Automatic annotation (TrEMBL):
Protein name, entry field: ribonuclease H
SUPFAM superfamilies membership: DNA/RNA polymerases
EC number: 3.1.26.4
Family assignment from sequence similarity: Belongs to the beta type-B retroviral polymerase family. HERV class-II K(HML-2) pol subfamily.
Length: 246
């Protein structure tokens, strides 16, 4: 009997220190301090020094590139969250904004994102022999913000205030909203019989009894995403195969 394997990869929205304990500190009896979700020293004065060093080292904001994509735009807002540029291992810089204060004052949403443990159990029980997986590129950036909400996401860079026009990283409801937006789109896709579709925020998995049907399902999903101007990098398409990473 052949077996099917899938691997549930780590997802940044399910890291305990980044989410549940994000922004919290734990003081040990010996006087040392653990700071969760922060790659900085919990001492305020040293934090400011580290922030200044990071800001000085970061390159200029590629305004024309991201404004042309309608990701950000200039604004004048009473809101303003601090910027914390992060350098990736490959040397590129990532514009991140510290929305902890905004998150703390934002009402909760009913979770629309599947519980990862329940989703894993469902996949294991289905035991589909053939699977295909797609990983959407920059899913948050495909979801526009309502006009009345844009001012809340303002930040200042080199004396100019900007805000996001699309869902930003770091906002606590971005994963839930992005998941719901992609789920709504996927509901419009007609799948071959006996092919099941599962998705988790920006990851999509299809399973079925034959590689032909799963391949047709993946093609249909890909066409729907392309029509909605949602990209899937070539390296993020897997299958049909008996083993995929999801």
């Amino acid at each position: 009997m052949s077996s099917t394997r899938f691997a549930i990869k780590d997802h940044h929205e399910n890291i305990l220190g980044f989410n549940v304990l994000n922004g919290r500190t734990w003081r040990l009896p010996n006087g040392s301090v653990w700071s969760f979700g922060l790659n900085i020293d919990p001492n305020p004065s040293r934090n400011r020094e580290a922030a200044v060093r990071a800001l000085r080292a970061a390159p200029a904001l590629p305004e024309s590139k991201i404004t042309n994509r309608q990701i950000i735009s200039r604004t004048h807002s009473p809101y303003n969250s601090p910027v914390w540029p992060v350098r990736k291992p490959d040397g590129r810089w990532c514009l991140t904004v510290d929305y902890r204060r905004l998150n703390a004052n934002t009402a909760p949403l009913t979770a629309a994102v599947p519980n990862i443990a329940n989703l894993t159990a469902t996949l294991q029980a289905a035991a589909q022999p053939w699977m295909a997986a797609l990983d959407v590129k920059d899913m948050f950036c495909t979801v526009p913000l309502k006009e009345e909400d844009k001012e809340k996401f303002a930040f200042t860079w080199e004396g100019i205030q900007y805000t996001f026009n699309r869902l930003p990283q770091g906002y606590k409801h971005s994963p839930t909203i992005a998941h719901a937006a992609l789920a709504e789109l996927l509901q419009t896709v007609s799948l071959p019989q006996e092919v099941k579709l599962y998705h988790y925020i920006d990851d999509i998995l299809m399973g079925g009894a034959s590689p032909e049907k799963v391949g047709k399902a993946a093609a249909a999903v890909g066409q729907a995403l392309h029509k909605a101007e949602i990209e899937i990098p070539p390296g993020k398409c897997q299958g049909p195969s008996k083993e995929v990473e999801f």
